[in-house]
Amino acid sequence: MNIRMCANSSALVYILLSKAIDCVSAEISPNPQGSEVVGMEAEVTQKVPEVLCEAAGEDAAGTEQASLTDGESTSAQPAAVSNGEESDEGKEMVEVKIIWNKNKYDLKIPLDGTGSKLKEKIHTLTGLPPAMQKVMYKGLLPEDKTLREIKVTNGAKIMVVGSTINDVLAVNTPKEVIQQEVKAEENKKEPLCRQKQHRKVLDKGKPDDVMPSIKGAKERLPTVPLSGMYNKSGGKLRLTFKLEQDQLWIGTKERTEKIPMGSIKNVVTEPIEGHEDYHMMAFQLGPTEASQYWVYWVPAQFVDAIKDTVLGKWQYF
After folding, report:
1. Helix, strand, or coil here: 298?
2. Residue 258 has pLDDT above 80, yes or no
3. Rounded Cα–Cα distance for residues 115 and 151 (Å)
4. Residue 104, helix vs strand vs coil
C-alpha cells in the first residue's frame, strides 16, 4: 500500500512539473544555459518523489506504531487480581451479632460457611486468634459444621470468650499482687506474735477446748468445723468450710459470717512463739491489711489445707 501511494504521488508531481516547465520554456527563448535548466528539472523531479515517499513511509510507520501502542495498551490492562479468598458473591448470607468482651459486632457470613471460617471472621473483627476463641451458639460451636447445619438464623447472637495474647501476657491477678506485697511487708516487720495488737489475745493463753494439734504434720480439712479458737477481741469462734457452696463460715456466739472464698485475697499465717504447734491466721477480705480477720490458735496440721482450699489451689473431699 505504501509503495502504491509513493508511485501515484511521484507520477502526479512529475506531470505538474512537466507542465510548468513547458509553460516556462514557451515564454523564454533558448540560451546557453538551457542544459542547466534541464538538469535542474531532472534533479527536482528525482528528489520530490523521494521526499514524498519518505513522508508517506513515516506516516505509515507512525500509524503502525500507534496501532501497536493501542494493542499493547489493550493487552496491558490488568486483569482482576484475586487475593486468595473465596468470593461470597451469589452465596446465601446470614447476618449475626458477635458479642465479645462487652462489645458487639455485626457480621454477614455465608450460611454454608463452617465454624472454622466464622472464627477467622471473628479474628478479623476482634484481633482474637482462632485458637484462643471459645465460640458459643446453643452450646460450643463445632468448627467442622456449617452455620446452616447448626441452624444459625438472621439476627442470631453468638457469644465469644477469650483473651488476646497481649491481655494474657499483661494479666497479673490481684491475689498474686497482694500476696507478694504482704510477704514483703512481713519480712520487714517484727514477728506478728510480738506485736501489741496480738499480744493482748495471745496472753490469755491457749483455750481449753481448742482442737488438738500435731506439729510438723499436714492433714486434710476435717469433716467437722474447726472450733475452740479466738478472734481479735478474744471471743470464741469456729471455722466451717462449705466446699459445695465455695464459702467460709466464721461463726461466733453472736452471728455467723458467710464469706465467698473467691473474695478472700490472701491468707497470712505465723506459728505462735512457745506454741509452734499452733498458728495465728488472718483472712484478708479486702485490698489492704485493715481488712484482715484474725484467728488465733489454729492447729498447725490444718494450716496448709486451709490456705490451699481458700486460695483455690485444690479442693478436698
Report:
1. strand
2. yes
3. 12
4. strand
Q: Give how far the C-alpha of residue 244 lies from the chain's centroid of Cα atoms, to the nearest Å.
A: 37
Give the tens place of pLDDT for each residue, 162-178: 877 776 666 555 656 66
User: DSSP alpha helices (H): ranges in the chain?
Assistant: 2-27, 34-76, 115-126, 165-170, 174-188, 196-202, 303-311
Alpha carbon distance 59, 78 (integer Å): 31
Q: 114 — phi, psi (to 5°)?
A: -85, 170
- Determine contact, residues 128/162, Cβ cutoff 8 Å: yes
SS3 194: helix
Spatial distance between the Cα atoms of 261 and 315, rounded to a whole number of angstroms? 12
| Residue owning grid cell 489454729 | 298
Query: Whole-angstrom Cα distance, residue 53 to residue 10?
Result: 8
C-alpha cell of residue 58:
513515516
Position 250 confidence tier, pLDDT thresholds 50, 70, 90? very high
Beta bridge partners of 230: 236, 296
Rg for the chain, CA atoms, rounded: 51
Q: What is the pLDDT of residue 164?
A: 74
Q: What is the pLDDT of residue 102?
A: 81
